[in-house]
């Protein structure tokens, strides 16, 4: 089979790999959709300092069907033909973090991550431990399941870290696929969402995903606009998804406000002397647990949320270079490889 690799010089190269065979406790997934995530670009551009490499298949948002199961995989874990999402991390499976659904935080340091330390999903077949699989609801498309696996799931994780958002004013910085997902979830949970971006086209989409108000921070005075919208009180909640707007995010956070920073690379700086009287709670969030991934999918189903509409482009594997040249511009929506 062929899979997409990143040499690190803004090229996406197809390489030949053996078709995977499942060992004990493992499954092979027939990939049906593999999402393109903004974090891919750190490896595509060669700016990442960890993992990946020219011999590792990329893609950490795969979704598909169980194709084959290895020895010891019982039907309660996986059966051939099951529609599945994948939690794209796995660890020792016995430490406190792993047992609570957070293998990316494996206390023994034995964790694996798709596209970093294990082959990813930008290929027709994918080998993973059976324990990484989660059921894909029948009413969700494969590409929706792919998005929930990281980008949309990352927004869900950030929203859950913020706590009860219903009835509060939530400002979401950045309206790419992760930010739009945050806007969608915030609105669905009863928040008044104010979407911030520097592109009017993305702000138009934010309204479609539930934003009550939008601010173009490149053309409007952000502080003035926020003061008008909040009566000078500032926002109760902030979700920063762009990775470059931390200062702006803090500038609009009101007293007793809570802010979650999920955009990378991110550079959050405060001077305690200047902000301690504001009684802020500042936090980060790292995608989500396997438990929350399933809850996210169930929530999307129950509210009939338009996750499919996050995608503006679909690609075949043989158009990988064209796809990532487009994605590198970050001027449109989300892309996905479909098989």
TrEMBL record:
<feature type="domain" description="Enoyl reductase (ER)">
    <location>
        <begin position="8"/>
        <end position="337"/>
    </location>
</feature>
<dbReference type="InterPro" id="IPR011032">
    <property type="entry name" value="GroES-like_sf"/>
</dbReference>
<dbReference type="InterPro" id="IPR013154">
    <property type="entry name" value="ADH-like_N"/>
</dbReference>
<dbReference type="InterPro" id="IPR013149">
    <property type="entry name" value="ADH-like_C"/>
</dbReference>
<dbReference type="InterPro" id="IPR002328">
    <property type="entry name" value="ADH_Zn_CS"/>
</dbReference>
<dbReference type="InterPro" id="IPR050129">
    <property type="entry name" value="Zn_alcohol_dh"/>
</dbReference>
<dbReference type="InterPro" id="IPR036291">
    <property type="entry name" value="NAD(P)-bd_dom_sf"/>
</dbReference>
<dbReference type="Pfam" id="PF08240">
    <property type="entry name" value="ADH_N"/>
</dbReference>
<protein>
    <submittedName>
        <fullName>Zinc-binding dehydrogenase</fullName>
    </submittedName>
</protein>
<comment type="similarity">
    <text>Belongs to the zinc-containing alcohol dehydrogenase family.</text>
</comment>
<dbReference type="InterPro" id="IPR020843">
    <property type="entry name" value="ER"/>
</dbReference>
<keyword id="KW-0560">Oxidoreductase</keyword>
<dbReference type="Pfam" id="PF00107">
    <property type="entry name" value="ADH_zinc_N"/>
</dbReference>
<keyword id="KW-0479">Metal-binding</keyword>
<keyword id="KW-0862">Zinc</keyword>
